[in-house]
Amino acid sequence: MIIRTRAHTAGVAAAAALLGLLGAGPVAADPVPVPTPVTAAAPAPVLAAQDQVEAFFLAYRNARLGTTEDATPAEVRTRFLTKELNQALDTWAAAHTGQDPVFRAPNVPSTWTFTSSGADGANVVVTQKWGDGTTADVAYTVRPGDLMITAIADPPATA
After folding, report:
1. Which helix H or strand E contains 138, and what residues bound it?
2. pLDDT digits (tens, 9 = 90+) for 88-133
3. Taking Cα atoms as reference points, which of 21, 53, 17, 52 lies closest to residue 128?
4. What is the pLDDT of residues 43-79, one digit of tens each?
């Protein structure tokens, strides 16, 4: 990496003057190469799925807290989740009165972390923590092709 400072530029100009290059008339320059367009590399699937879950989680949380004016929780769900998952979450909420179907709790978590798993990163676990110290893991499944979230569930118990 080259970092140019004013002192470096002044030093180059002084050296050129000493060599008699300044004011000596036009100098034939090498042709300027045409830059090759740089294309952004697609994010690794693991990061893309995790980024999508994080974007959904934050947008949904903000909508639930009322700190955003651009979307309601239902609108956020429609934007990020498949129609089938939205219907499944409505069914889950009906069976779990007072619980949010995304957070799997009655209130909004105060902190959280994201962990991806699987070869394609399509599975993301969100570890949520509330002010009273309780935590809960919620598993997300992301469809790699279009990054739509296809499942939100309590992760299976580990033995």
Report:
1. strand 135-142
2. 999 999 999 999 999 999 999 999 999 988 777 889 999 999 999 9
3. 53
4. 555 578 999 999 999 999 999 999 877 899 999 999 9
Give the amino acid at 149. I
Q: What pTM did the predictor assign?
A: 0.69
Look up residue 11 and give its amino acid.
Answer: G
Q: Which three-class secondary structure state does DSSP give residue 13?
A: helix
Q: What is the dihedral of CA 96, 101, 106, 107, to 10 degrees?
A: 180
What is the DSSP annotation of 75-125? HHHHHHB-HHHHHHHHHHHHHSTT-BTTTTBSS--SEEEEEEESTT--EEE
Question: Cα angle vertex 153, ends 77, 140, to 5°?
Answer: 65
Note whether 140 and 152 are within 8 A (CB). Answer: yes
